[in-house]
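Each field is listed here:
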Amino acid sequence: MLANIKGLVDRLELSQAKAMMPLYEAISNSLDAIEEHQDGFINHSISIRLVAANDLAHQAGDGTLVVDGFDVIDDGVGFNHKNLASFKEAHTLSKVKVGGRGVGRFTFLKVFSSVRIRSVFKSDGKNLLREFDFSIEDELKGADVTSEVHEACGTQTSLRGMDDKYRAGWPTHPETIAERIIAHFLIRFAARSCPPMTLESPGHAPIDLHALFQSTVLAHIEEQFFEVSGHTFALQAYRHRDGRSRHELNLCANGREVTTTKLRDLLPELPEKFLDEEQAPYTLIVLVTGEYLDDHANQERTRIAFQSDEEPELEQTLVSRRALNQGIAGALRPLLTGDLQSTNDEKRAQIEKFVEQAPEYRALTHPRYKEVIEQMIQPGLSQDKLDEALLRVKRTVEDEVRKEARHVAALFETETFEQYQEKFKDIAEKANEIGKAQLAAYIAHRRTILDLVNNSLRKKRTDDKYPLERVLHKMIFPMGVTSKDIFFEQQNLWVIDERLCYHTLLTSDKKLKSVAGLDETSGREPDIFAFFYDTPIGVAEADNLPGGGVVIIEFKRPGRDNYDKDPADQVIQRFREIAEGGVTDVDGRQINPANLRYTGYLIADLTPSLHRQVFGRYHRTADNEGYFSPLATGNGYIEILSYDKLIKDAERRNRILFDKLGLHKN
């Protein structure tokens, strides 16, 4: 051998659960030897004989099968000179063409102490016998010695002396061992690329593995035919009862698997494992066959030629792998309706519960989206992963609606009004659902913002003080930016007044003189400054105030109680600076300050010192949680709002929306 056998065996990792790998390897070698005859598997056979351990229990008459070894006997081409040369090579490449890694035979020595090979092969018209032991100490001593015999070609591989640590990995019932063999070679059995095979064991009747396959596995197979690009393919779906496996998709050519991929990559809706009526796990093994696959597999059977996505026009005779996958999914899904029933029920229940907290996805619970939800959402997702998955579905649905809308619009020129109206009605209904979902998301956002503001007011810091006013300021509008710098969804001016959302320009913690048109004012920085060019707000007609409106908002720290003057004075000072600052409009035209309407909001807790400063100068609001006062100039007013009033008023204005979505909190 070209490598140290002991080192290879020592480095070989083989768990107790894989103790039957030497048997699988011996059977696989026999299958390959028979295939070399190239005259059909049906004309050959494999016999497996289990050898029981002659331990004290067996000597005392215990009928329990304790496997000590086995023989695998075939009528393949035998260990001819070419096959022996491959066997001698430590990491042989001869099995690469059938997916092997060239190290399987070393599992013989990992599990068993004795390996004996007796093989008859044909050379130069003679049948020659080759017998040798395969061992760590002597490697393949005597393998080069041959003698002429009058026997048919074939090989017997005999393994004895199982290591005690691997005994637990072997079942004690021959039927279970037979089922394990079928499970391991399932694709070969299904593809009819397996010769007749029997399993014999002491004290038990022989087991015909093909008959066992027919009775235990074939009953759980469904077959479907489908076409892709003019080529017919056959799909077979097996319910694999060996719960240790995963869902697999196998493309097969000439009776052998060529490529194996994860079926869940094609069908994300599959659970990791299915459960049958008795709660036993099973997975799906899918085989796809067809003349196209037979004709386009490479010689090594490791790859199938498909049309490339980059230059499809150069390979028009080839099938697209994407198109084949779509055909497989379309043929397979109807077969899995029953299997997926409970999974889809659980998935829908999870989504419906999740939608209670994320109403923006509520439209996706409509029956028309049932199929896309079932196909695009994996079962058992975490809350975060489910949110991401639903967002992808929502975007997919929105894209489809937009495409349909463009298509329907194009039909206006070619179809009757009645046909156009019917199609428009359908697309309008879908678009309306999407609009509702977007509105629901925005309303849910409002609910969240109010909760955050409310919680911030309730939470004191370790120094027993409330959070700084800038914490609340940021929730209403980001600091240090203008309304041109952020998206509409990033500002929450509606908490104070819905009309503030429709400003022409708004700045937050910016110097007043940095605002276009207010160059002559001071460098003071109002918390929030809003300009409504030619759009006055408040109780006045637009014709009476052609100059527009100015709004200034100031936040005071919650809980503050050290006011020594009217805190609204700083708002009034900003109004005065604007009135004296030569205000211009968006076109650079001078605005008469007398035509501006001024509105000021002071957001603060109504503490005793604040009450003293405004006593006799302001009117109390009807709910006793704020103050208001007109400006002496008669063109505006100041309103002092408590944080409690701010939240309560916003809750009242939005209550009908929250009620409709089930978001109202008593």
